[in-house]
Known about the structure:
The complex is a heterotrimer. Chain A contains 4 helices and no strands. Chain A has helices spanning 2-29, 48-69, 78-85, 100-108. The termini of chain A are far apart. Chain B has helices spanning 7-39, 54-77, 82-85, 88-108, 116-121, 128-151, 159-182, 195-221, 228-258, 260-272, 275-297, 304-331, 358-381, and strands at residues 224-225, 340-344, 393-394. Chain B starts with 6 loop residues before the first helix and ends with a strand. At the B-C interface, helix 5, helix 6 and strand 2 of B face strand 2, helix 3, helix 4 and strand 6 of C.
Amino acid sequence: xxxxxxxxxxxxxxxxxxxxxxxxxxxxxxxxxxxxxxxxxxxxxxxxxxxxxxxxxxxxxxxxxxxxxxxxxxxxxxxxxxxxxxxxxxxxxxxxxxxxxxxxxxxxxxxxxxxxxxxxxxxxxxxxxxxxxxxxx
Amino acid sequence: xxxxxxxxxxxxxxxxxxxxxxxxxxxxxxxxxxxxxxxxxxxxxxxxxxxxxxxxxxxxxxxxxxxxxxxxxxxxxxxxxxxxxxxxxxxxxxxxxxxxxxxxxxxxxxxxxxxxxxxxxxxxxxxxxxxxxxxxxxxxxxxxxxxxxxxxxxxxxxxxxxxxxxxxxxxxxxxxxxxxxxxxxxxxxxxxxxxxxxxxxxxxxxxxxxxxxxxxxxxxxxxxxxxxxxxxxxxxxxxxxxxxxxxxxxxxxxxxxxxxxxxxxxxxxxxxxxxxxxxxxxxxxxxxxxxxxxxxxxxxxxxxxxxxxxxxxxxxxxxxxxxxxxxxxxxxxxxxxxxxxxxxxxxxxxxxxxxxxxxxxxxxxxxxxxxxxxxxxxxxxxxxxxxxxxxxxxxxx
Amino acid sequence: xxxxxxxxxxxxxxxxxxxxxxxxxxxxxxxxxxxxxxxxxxxxxxxxxxxxxxxxxxxxxxxxxxxxxxxxxxxxxxxxxxxxxxxxxxxxxxxxxxxxxxxxxxxxxxxxxxxxxxxxxxxxxxxxxxxxxxxxxxxxxxxxxxxxxxxxxxxxxxxxxxxxxxxxxxxxxxxxxxxxxxxxxxxxxxxxxxxxxxxxxxxxxxxxxxxxxxxxxxxxxxxxxxxxxxxxxxxxxxxxxxxx
Lengths: 137, 397, 244
């Protein structure tokens, strides 16, 4: 019993500390984390700290609304995110660790699945010809 | 009662060699799966006309055999024959091994195998594929439970009810496997109510054939021979199942031939389709059914090696049959415009061609080797899985 | 009944008929003005999108619809058996009479889609307004829907997709098919194939709301003989064909 307490108690304290500090941990990742090319930048749909912790939940919820229910014009549209955050240098959110999505995801070592299917380039940059696709990466 | 010497005491070098070989094939299979996922299915022979290829042939064989091998156990636990009771633990182990192998191949062939969790958490109750998930995982659990009731003396009184549950569950599971095809109303090869019973009888035969091969190998490597009376019974049982399968396959084709709208398809499968009639008649009927029946029933052919040969031929025949069924069934064009001759850029009206590729075969064999590894290692670790027959005699006797 | 009552009766009958006529008349137009659905509003089952294909106006050798679809939705022109084809031209020859026709073949957007029934993850689904789609977020690439489709409408993406379209996400390892240009329809536009066919002067494709009693497709489908493909299967496709 004593041995169990000796293991459990510190673990619980650690967990509580972690939970309390979580916000600060995320904030630390901001200024001392990867330097991102934020694209157009400006005002995001939500507060940046909220977005860092919650953007995945927003995207996941939005995709079902759009895809399955056919609700258009949602606030958390992935295509809108890409339109704003695509780098003005390579017109994409991927491609280097300075690009908006790839930068943080590479830093946090979280694989992004979105761009297997979704365009990582803004709408106005979409190539008219798909036959030249091999040149684009 | 002659106690088995554990495998380890006799042939541990052979054991490690077998495991190394198995790991090699499994690694080849896994690298093929990685290659397919990395580059897409374009590296395989599958295309938009033949969407399920050689991996599915291997996978469905393993899944059907996994369910059928439990028959040996059921005959013991449910129907009370003592000689089969001794073989029940091995049958259970084999079932788990084959199921694991078959499912690995199926899952690794998916276009997005990384999405298995999506499959597990989004359940469409009208889809037989979705039902497969609880059915297969349920079988794993039930068989593990069953093996426990067999090996743990205090649990022996639960053998019969758990054995019955396993037997019922596997019938449902194999029916589900048949229904995968039976529900496809659009294709002339499928969409038939005879498929679930056909799959069940096929499972009886293929499971027993696999069991024969594995059992004989284990007896040999342990320096023992089987009791001829037991062997005879099991051999004859295989004969019955081979005959049963042949009957159902014949009925399936005969019925199809009778319907005018199905005749073109049947002529393709039975006569004009090149590799498909070749595999059906040569691979399945002659080598996979008639020859084993000769080996089983002709007097003077009761020797063990003939039973093993018959079993191996049955397995070969099963691959041929599955190839014709799965791939031949897709090669024949859909009848979208009855009464019209059609052509298009998408293969409408044309027989689809399929050239299986190396990654597909590697994946299939990889699955087989996973089953092999689980059996080999499992039997070594839990030596009580070996049939501890009171009739077994050492070769010295 | 007294004379006065008779007159009143007649007045009321004719009067209400005139009122009804005045009410309906503005809605009766020969052309379908598709309305964009307002943002935030889900697709409604009051609508059923469908197409009427007039094969007598379809030319053998014309590929306008195929080219338009591939440009709109970002799939490359099909060259091999592993290439994707959302729409294809099928050449038909009646074996009894020898008469030849041509028609475009796509997903038929069935009311009882077999692909939706067999999909283990509900990736293949029917939207409330009748459009059958594949939710790529859920598709695991098992290809069971491809086995189940009586029209061979579905294609599997065998290779990595390099040039993504912002409006029509598609990726390797998932299954896809004609979406009835759902991204255009939701904006009040016509599918690309329909637009291209009209632009090319053939006018073989007519798109609209099958439930809208004022729409051109509703009226036309009641005035000409049309069939659904494989009607014997009881799937009630949203696409009908004239001339075969």
